[in-house]
Design goal:
The complex is a heterodimer of chains A (165) and B (620).
Chain A lengths: L7 E5 L9 H11 L10 E5 L3 E5 L8 H5 L5 E3 L6 E3 L9 H5 L6 E2 L6 E2 L9 H5 L5 E5 H25 L1
Chain B lengths: L6 E6 L5 E5 L2 H7 L2 H11 L14 E5 L14 E6 L6 E6 L3 H8 L3 E5 L6 E6 L2 E6 L8 H12 L5 E4 L2 H4 L7 E3 L3 E3 L4 H7 L2 E7 L9 H15 L5 H4 L6 H7 L21 H7 L1 E5 L9 E5 L9 E4 L1 H7 L8 H14 L3 H16 L18 H13 L3 H5 L3 H8 L9 E2 L2 E2 L9 H9 L12 H5 L12 H18 L13 H12 L5 H21 L31 H15 L9 H6 L6 H10 L1
Parallel strand pairs in B: 1-6, 7-12
Antiparallel strand pairs in B: 1-2, 3-4, 3-6, 4-5, 7-8, 9-10, 9-12, 10-11, 13-14, 14-15, 16-17
Helix pairs in contact in B: 1-2, 2-19, 2-21, 11-13, 12-14, 17-19, 17-22, 19-21, 19-22, 20-21
The chains are: A alpha+beta (165), B alpha+beta (620).
Chain lengths: 165, 620
């Protein structure tokens, strides 16, 4: 089994995300050949005018959605970590939806089975299209590295500005 | 049909009956969508002389062919069209955000709302299911509270809502229709028309696919637009935003100050885009499908209005700031937030507050009229208090809520001299005393005082023309932009993106064809822009408008710019205005009274509406 350290997922930077939902359109077109946010595997959320963030599958280790499925319709790829839906087994009962902390797995409006991000074979269209470069296709480790670098930069910039004042 | 939903919904608000009719390909091509389609439907669905608040005045909501697609800025627009209670001519206002895309996914290019409900209702459009819902519990709520409550009770947080506030309920003629918390279909009093129908809100959930005719080429085009939107054409909107105008206009002596008393504001620095972004802006948001994002969200960090959060644009900032002589952004931001809260057009409302201050300065209004409020120019707290009064229609606010023209008539004592409007619509933040190309566009605009019907201020401010000169040929320059702007408002793309269509009509025509599959050339689209302009004019002619309605604001023609600046001494005389109008009418092929001739109607393919002008031409 590929280590969780090697798994890349789509992550949104709330500082950069402007809530434009371009990712939703890119996703629904890629997967369903139509522009329709309710068929997108990534959904943007805006709260109180100032908080924006796009949310999609985090490829959890020991994924709760998989564990919750009473029909064994969900399996997780050992290689990439993506959740695969067996559409013949899924009956849309929604246990997985309840189990997911992020609302990343959803009921398909037409097919009545669940659907979830599959990373577009390793080339997520949402990341490619995001005009703000707010989406990243990264491993958790790299994400942590980036966060550290940003934090330290901020810290030192503040220190430097204070010095110059 | 691609792009289009191909369907028009008709809702009778008095009994809840609905009807869906197809949108013909002919109408799609001829009127595009947005204000073009809306104005055509208005002409067909109303009788001449209809009182704007009567049930016979329909409120028309439209989307554009791009709404619901991935087209940046084009994917999210909607427009309201009706007879305006401010101008008694055609009223139209666009808004962006997320509402328009949702309506398209529900499957409608237009919604015609007819008659009036006896009791407060909201319209719930859930794909094919259309219901009038009780809105008693929403009456008195702000548009933002209404949006939240409706989402709660219908149990879906992705439902999009367009709603009126207390101002619309109380038939304030400057009431707007708000959507997505901070976005407004602001101008010409569309919120009051909605209020007159007892219609509190329109809630939409759309789950249908939106498909374009040539998806691969369309996506390539979109990608190109994304790149262009990262470039110089949109820098202004992505960085300081429209408030960048403050210092630019100020340096050019074109920043109307203290209700057009001055054209330079000594406090400009403190209400500038630079000052605003440094101290107040916390986030820049994007509308649905936009690759540019412009929505500057300000939060007041300290002082009496601490915590106030709202979207900021130049026009309302100008209206409550320089135009009222106020240099305190915290109060300006508070006034803007209150406009959103009451559902007032913040631009018109700021104009009215400045007018009241001018009357106060000249002794026409006294503290007896204002309930003790000191309306001296520059009184920051007073603008906030007066917005409350206008929103609730309390005291003087009741008169002011009628709009600046009617308020001046009611106040009397020569107040008309200080009421800056055109056709009854309040003036906007360009000092056209020294922008004489723009002045033509303002005078002839079918919806009244408006920079967004022609954009000719650009020619003046950039120095493309001598802005202090009146000369033949200027009208043609204005007309060229007018024709583009009606197309922009009918496709409903965002005007902030106008610079990214490098080839103008050619780019737009190609875009249109990729989305809809309908053949369109640059020439045909330009002619369509002309057609839609004439359509607006025809509605007004039908309602009895004549040359005298193509006027300029009182102070633009009476008060030369007094400041020691490049525009010093400039204003517009009646002779100059007459010259401008003659130039404009003859270039459009209209009569001296500004009535389109039958010949000119044929040129733009509107001969079926010749009945409107027949008698008017004979009269002359």
């Amino acid at each position: 089994m590929a280590s969780i350290h090697a798994r890349k997922f789509v992550s949104a930077d709330p500082d950069k995300c402007v809530g434009c939902c371009v990712c939703e359109y890119a996703c629904s077109y890629e997967k369903e050949k139509a522009f329709n946010p309710v068929k997108s595997r990534i959904r943007a959320v805006r709260l109180d005018s100032v908080i924006n963030m796009a949310v999609t599958c985090r490829l959890c280790e020991n994924a709760p959605c998989v564990n919750a499925c009473p029909r064994d319709a969900l399996t997780q790829s050992e290689e990439t970590g993506i959740i695969m839906v067996d559409e013949d087994k899924c009956n849309g009962c929604g246990w997985c939806i309840e189990a997911c902390d992020y609302g990343a797995i959803m009921l398909h409006p037409d097919k009545k089975v669940v659907f979830v991000c599959d990373l577009c074979d390793g080339n997520p269209k949402c990341v490619e299209w995001c005009p703000e470069e707010a989406l990243d296709f990264v491993t958790a480790d790299v994400l942590a590295q980036k966060a550290r670098i940003t934090a330290i930069k901020k810290l030192f910039q503040e220190a430097l500005t204070q010095k110059s004042e | 049909m691609y792009g289009y939903a191909g369907r028009i919904l008709r809702v009778n608000l008095s009994n809840g009956k609905t009807q869906v009719t197809p949108l013909s390909e002919e109408y799609a091509k001829k009127y595009i969508g947005g204000i073009g389609l809306g104005m055509r439907l208005l002409i067909e669905n109303s009788k001449p002389g209809t009182e704007p608040f009567s049930p016979e005045n329909p409120l028309i909501l439209t989307t554009g062919p791009f709404s619901g697609t991935m087209a940046p800025t084009g994917g999210n627009g909607h427009a309201f069209v009706s007879k305006s209670p401010l101008t008694n001519g055609v009223g139209e206002a666009k808004s962006h955000g997320f509402f328009g895309a949702e309506l398209k996914r529900a499957g409608y290019d237009a919604v015609i709302m007819e008659n009036a409900s006896k009791k407060p209702v909201y319209l719930w459009i859930d794909d094919d299911s259309i219901q009038l819902m009780d809105a008693k519990h929403l009456w008195g709520k702000s548009p933002q509270e209404t949006e939240e409550t409706i989402r709660e009770e219908l149990g879906d947080y992705y439902i999009r809502v367009a709603a009126i506030g207390v101002a619309g309920e109380k038939l304030s003629r400057v009431a707007c229709i708000m959507n997505d918390r901070t976005r407004a279909a602001g101008r010409t009093g569309m919120g009051a028309v909605m209020g007159s129908k007892n219609l509190k809100a329109i809630a939409v959930r759309g789950t249908k696919d939106v498909k374009v005719a040539k998806p691969e080429e369309f996506l390539e085009f979109v990608k190109m637009m994304h790149e262009r939107m990262k470039g110089p054409a949109t820098t202004k909107y992505r960085t300081l935003g429209t408030p960048l105008n403050v210092l630019v206009h100020n340096s050019l002596g074109a920043l109307p100050t203290r209700n057009f008393t001055n054209a330079v504001f000594e406090g400009a620095e403190h209400v500038s885009g630079e000052y605003l972004n440094e101290r107040f802006i916390v986030k820049i948001n994007g509308c649905s499908s936009c690759a540019m994002r412009c929505e500057h969200i300000a939060v007041v960090p300290e002082g009496p209005y601490k915590g106030t959060t709202t979207r900021v644009e130049y026009e309302p900032l100008w209206a409550f700031g320089p135009h009222c002589g106020v240099d305190r952004l915290d109060a300006v931001i508070k006034a803007m937030e209150l406009c959103n809260y009451y559902g007032l057009d913040s631009l018109s409302t700021g104009n009215i507050v400045g007018f009241a201050m001018d009357c106060f300065e000249h002794g026409i209004l006294t503290e007896k009229d204002t309930d003790g409020l000191d309306l001296s120019f520059g009184n920051a707290e007073a603008i906030v208090e007066l917005v409350h009064k206008i929103g609730k229609r309390e005291g003087l606010g009741d008169i002011l809520a009628e709009g600046v023209k009617r308020a001046a008539e009611k106040i009397g004592k020569g107040a008309e001299k200080y009421a800056n409007h055109i056709k009854g619509l309040e003036m906007t933040g360009y000092d056209i005393r020294g922008l004489k190309t723009a002045a033509i566009g303002y005078a002839v605009s079918f919806r009244g005082a408006d920079h967004n019907r022609h954009g000719a201020y650009g020619l003046d401010l950039k120095g493309t023309v001598d802005r202090f000169k009146v000369e033949k040929g200027r009208a043609k320059l204005v007309i060229d932009i007018e024709n583009l702007y009606t197309v922009i408002d009918s496709l409903i793309i965002c005007k902030f993106s106008r610079g990214t269509y490098y080839k103008g009509f050619e780019d737009l025509a190609r875009y249109y064809t990729l989305v809809t599959g309908l053949e369109m050339t640059a020439e045909e689209l330009e002619r369509t822009g002309a057609r839609i302009n004439v359509l607006g004019r025809l509605f007004n002619v039908r309602e009895g408008f004549t040359r005298k309605d193509d006027h300029l604001p009182a102070k633009v023609m009476s008060t030369p710019i007094p400041d020691d600046t490049v525009s010093k001494g400039s204003y517009i005389t009646q002779k100059e205005l007459d010259f401008m109008l003659d130039d404009y009418y003859s270039t459009r092929g209209w009569t001296r009274e500004g009535v389109p001739t039958i010949e000119s109607l044929k040129e733009v393919g509107l001969e079926d509406l010749a009945y409107i002008v027949k008698d008017k031409i004979r009269e002359q």
